[in-house]
Amino acid sequence: MVLGKWLGSFLLLLVRFSMNALGAYVGINIGTNISNMPPASDVVAILKANQITHVRLYDADAHLLKALGNSGIEVMVGVTNEEVLGVGESASTAAAWVNKNVAAYLPATNITAIAVGSEVLTSIPNAASVLVPALTYLQKALVAANINFQVKVSTPQSMDIVPRPFPPSTATFNSSWNSTIYQLLQFLKNTKSFYMLNAYPYYGYTNGDGIFPLEYALFQPLSAVKQIVDPNNLFHYSSMFDAMVDAVYYSIEAYNISGIPIVVTETGWPWLGGTNERDATVDNAETFNDNLVRRVLNDSGPPSQSDIPINTYIYELFNEDKRPGPVSEKNWGIFFTNGSAVYPLSMSTSDQITGNSSVTFCVARQNADSDKLRDGLNWACGQGHANCSPIQQRQPCYFPDSLQNHASYAYNDYYQRMHSVGGTCDFSGTAMTTTVDPSYRSCKFTGSSNSSNGVGFLPTEAFGPISPQGGSPSLQVSRFQCLVSAICLALVLLC
Questions:
Q1: Are the CB atoms for 80 and 58 separated by under 8 Å?
Q2: Start and end of every X8 domain (predicted)?
Q3: 27-31, 389-393, 434-438: which has the minimum mean pLDDT?
Q4: Would you call the peptide bond into 38 cis, given omega within 30 degrees of 0 as the criterion?
Q5: What is the average per-residue pLDDT within 386-403?
Q6: How far apart are CA 367 and CA 195, in angstroms?
Q7: Catalytic residue ranges
């Protein structure tokens, strides 16, 4: 009995350790309720140009999923609210959904999660009874396809199912949903998945009737007289975002369940509002998202779970002008559809995804002819004397294992070495210059002044070789290898 309890605690620590080791990330939501939605290839080009490594789709758009192939970007696909009932009532429907929208795109498209519905309990409560069956059927389909280690299943819920989120220590889920939520939490724990939370300090502040200061919602420092403290445990909350996440952790704990990490699937701030939406401004949106990124990438959790990072997806990539509702509903985007930034957003303390760099880089063009790309890559690594060792297997720039990625690295290395003596960035028309640093994760392009790209991953070689089946440097494979090694060590110590 003592051994079992010790091993259970040890495994929980390993889960937390593995999340810290891989580091926190900031992704982005891609809504498509747009009059002039760019072609999928242009959307992916915007993501790659701005070093965005994680995206969430609200559906399983075939054009986007195909375009994201071989990009290395981790993708969360969505079962729409309209599909939840069908998937939850039929195992065969769920299996068909997985085969069509997930399995068909792997391994080229790095799909790592399925988000089932959007705030189902509060937006379509009539589907509550089939929500967990929907997750279960999808999980069984993933197991049957042998991709359940690659793809996790969960369902995003809003903060509305926590009626009184402050103080966090006394927060509980709405008792009306007790049975469904308990089943959901058991499913997430049994499948080693995560709780998906949509947390919006914007609404917490604007609907709060002045209870909390604006600085608290924007991650800004609070004066001594404005400190937000949970009276039950004296935890200080420096942001409403942390308090919201902690309120859900305490709500989960109320069911005597632990070990389920929270991923924030939506948060953000609108940059434009109507006459009665005075807090929807460019300054507030830039301040919120810039501070959010800094907060998430410090790899810590809220006060009650300080060692579990809060992986987060910003809402959203583009402004969705076709969304109904007030002006603010249409203006949460960070980019316009032509790829220009609504406002600059710093993805780390040292670089910006929408800013400019003083260094010019040479990268492969999107949709360049593959034969010409291959010839250019071979020339750069051969006659061009580029240093191509980082794009070899087990090296930091090998993944994503794509011709375009490898060519970009080789082209740039050649260009940085030779442009001062006449070397050009052309390669038979397959290359182009950019001021956006193409470095990512532990892969640093020649000429980059950044020591970190802001996504928090350790070099892939720290976890051993990565199987191409798994996708990107944050693969479950690497995490699993690390976990197995640690468990083996523990058993040896016990024996």
A1: yes
A2: 360-445
A3: 434-438
A4: no
A5: 90
A6: 37
A7: 119, 266
d(CA 214, CA 13): 36
Write the DSSP assignment of 453-492 as a string of letters: -SS-PPPGGGG----TTT-STT-HHHHHHHHHHHHHHHHH
CA of 299: how far to CAs of 293, 296, 308, 427, in Å? 11, 6, 7, 40
Measured in degrees and rounded to the nearest 5, phi and psi for residue 419 equal -65, -25
What is the DSSP annotation of 387-435?
Answer: --GGGSTTSTT--S--HHHHHHHHHHHHHHHHGGGT--S-TTTTEEEES
**Count of residues making up the chain:** 495
Q: How many CB atoms within 10 Å of residue 275? A: 6
DSSP one-letter code for 292: H
How far is it, in rounded angstroms, from Cα 99 to Cα 89?
17
Residue ranges, comma separated, of all CATH 3.20.20.80 domains in the chain are 21-335
Q: Which residues contact 394 (CB under 8 A, 6 or more apart)?
A: 460, 461, 465
| CA–CA distance, 230 with 222 (Å, rounded to integer) | 15
What amino acid occupies position 159? M
Fold type of domain 21-335: TIM Barrel (3.20.20)
pLDDT, residue 10, reads 44
Distance between CA atoms of residues 392 and 407, nearest Å = 12
d(CA 217, CA 235) in angstroms, rounded, equals 17
Residue 336 dihedral angles phi and psi, to the nearest 5°: -80, 165
Note the pTM of the prediction, 2 decimals. 0.70
Average pLDDT, the chain: 84
Are the CB atoms for 351 and 453 separated by under 8 Å? yes
pLDDT of residue 484: 45
